[in-house]
Amino acid sequence: MFLSTLGVTERQIRTELKKRQRDGQIAMEGRGGRREAEKVEDEEKRQSILDHINKFPRKESHYCRTNTKNEFLAPELNLTTMYNMYVSEMAANKKKPASRSLYNNIFKSLGLKFFALKKDACGICLRKMKENPTDESFLTMYQKHVDEKVKVRQVKEEAKKMASENPKICAAVFDLQQVIYTPKSHHSSIFYKRRLANYNFTIFDLQSQEGRCFLWHEGIARRGANEISTCIYKFLQEKDLDGTEEVILFCEGCVGQNKNSVLPSMILYSLEHAKNLKKVTVNYFETNHGQNEGGCMHSVIERKVSKQPEIMVPSQLATLIQTARATGKKQYTVYEINTVDVIDWKRYGQDIGLHAWRDALDGSSLVWTKVKSVALEKRKGECDMLFKHSHMEEFSVVSKPPKRQKHKHKSKTLPRPQNAYASVPKLSLPKYNDLIALCSRPKPVVYQQDQIMFYSNLPHTQK
User: Fold this and answer.
1) I need a surface site. Which of 4, 163, 181, 202 has the fewest CB within 10 A?
2) How far is CA 9 from CA 4, 12, 18, in A?
């Protein structure tokens, strides 16, 4: 009757009696709360995850650096691999690992991604697609953006046709491939260390389908305007010897590498010393709308590299690139660049005053950030520079300042420019130490003596 009056069961009464403490009080409900010890344990697990993730070297995107704050981890990594490495590390330290879901959540909160080659996103086109703005100024800008994209592709098709009909004309595209790091291995310790950056600059002939690769690493040179211009200079020399009279180039514009006065300075020197070459034009694709057939070279090379379990030193990379193309097709030609090969074209342009060439005969002014096309043409022993701020415009001819004719060098041909480097570039001490660690662990990633010597002999800073 007592139970019926209260509407409870006998089991509920027995449970409450069991929970009665010595002072007669009933213990408080334990569900839904966390013990302080558990909270401390959770915080320790979170910190262990952060410590583990922060061990992996990060890098900026090869593309869209100004449009994203994300940092990227090595493309060989993924969340499963990282979590398994974390579990192994915790087991080695005799600690209990956190759950996979907690590891994933913390990883995502850090804004990290795994590096993957992908097409650049165009901010203008994305805004048009998502917001569909109606203000006249944006619509005018968007239409010009689309017109430029279409026009430069038409120019490229016309150049390909010209090259197919005339053996004295060459049309080509060029680009710098994303960085390739060595040593490459499936060894887990490699992901915690900074590795040697290798640069591969490619030029693809649109008519002959020949691919040329210019390969070097950060212990030889950087990847700026001097390096890019030096690679193109070697290509122009080769085409001049072949009897080519006109070269038409296409690329994506990067002010720090190819969209500045450094590249025209090199072209000017090439033309003034050429036997056959008379004209070189560089056309820049509309921003984020590159249509570069050379990209297929990068894909082929990346596929070959990804299938190779180990690439210990850059010399092995050169061999891989050379044989990357499918059997039956002409293999890529690889030129290994040395420090002494890199010419200081920037200084050369300053010496001859080309960096100051701005005013055109039609009254317009050259603005490098707006340039869509630049050409240099040799006529009767003199070279003229022309430019466009739109692919839909005619070329404007640059008016050369009188001081060039009064240059201290009296000969018609200018002297050979100087080397860009007085000595080889040095690696930072932390990176050098990481490379040496990969050669000297109890289970070294790099184990052959000649390969160990290669990394040991790399110049580096002392601090």
Assistant:
1) 4
2) 8, 5, 15
